[in-house]
Amino acid sequence: MRLLSPALFFPAGNLQRKISVFAFPARNIGVHATKPGMEKNRGEGSRQEGVESRIQSNPRVVKAQQLVNSDSSGGWEKSWEEGATPWDLGQPTPVMVHLHQTGALPKGRALVPGCGSGYDVVAMACPERYVVGLDISETAIRTAVELSSSLPNADYFTFLKADFFTWQPTNLFDLIFDYTFFCAIEPDMRSAWAQRISDLLKPDGELITLMFPIGDHVGGPPYKVSVSDYEEVLHPFGFKAISIVNNELAIKPRKGKEMLGRWKKSLSLL
């Protein structure tokens, strides 16, 4: 299995849908941890169980899993062809919109692997940031182009059908954003994912990971993730977390199941 598309498990909408943005820490050094009380723990557990239940019982998720698991090379394309794309939010990821609007994203060249319909690509693209959306599905790329080609910022992004694991771009990137790509590849491919991130990112570039779904469900895609899963594969390539925080801007069904990680290579290893 190779590439897929980002955003997960809820119906698509319009690319230009208005997003409400709430206060969010754009950058915090170190890992934030809390020590909740028993009532909060029970509430958090209920939210996590609810998300995992939706993941495992959503008919569109089940259909996509069947297609992907039965055809590792063409399953993602079949999912797009048959409309079994429950990962497609139908809007940009709210926290990325916020980071863009507050000037908290690196400028230069950005990459979104598994871009799907391209909402996040379009949301980040601007004169100071050229964004490349990559997906292995021809139908996904065609959809992204159709949705975005007439938008005012169309000169600042492009979409390419390519396999993230074999694609060789001419130039490296200042920013790579991963959301529901890491969780969709088979866990034994995660080290290869980290190798490609290291290869494609400039030495002083930044990796942003929106880690989802954090939990204990069995099977996939999406496969369960944890902060330690990212650390395990990124640390050997010199990446260190400069910030890991709960995603307070997660859409309601994903509250408590997402963490935003920002990673850079250690200067001592450059």
From TrEMBL:
Extract the InterPro entries matched here: SAM-dependent_MTases_sf, TPMT
The keyword S-adenosyl-L-methionine appears for this protein: yes
Which GO molecular function, any one, fits this protein according to its record? S-adenosylmethionine-dependent methyltransferase activity
Gene Ontology biological-process entries: methylation
PANTHER family attached to this UniProt entry: PTHR32183, THIOL METHYLTRANSFERASE 2-RELATED
Task: Provide an example Pfam family for this protein.
Answer: TPMT
Q: Tell me which UniProt keywords the record has, alphabetically.
A: Methyltransferase, Phosphoprotein, S-adenosyl-L-methionine, Transferase
Which domain of life does the protein's organism represent?
Eukaryota
Feature: compositional bias, Basic and acidic residues: 37-52
Q: Which organism is it from?
A: Rubroshorea leprosula
Question: In the record, what lineage is assigned to the organism producing the protein?
Answer: Eukaryota, Viridiplantae, Streptophyta, Embryophyta, Tracheophyta
Cite the SUPFAM superfamilies for this sequence: S-adenosyl-L-methionine-dependent methyltransferases (SSF53335)
User: Quick one: where's region Disordered?
Assistant: 33-56
Which protein, by its recorded name, is this?
Thiol methyltransferase 2
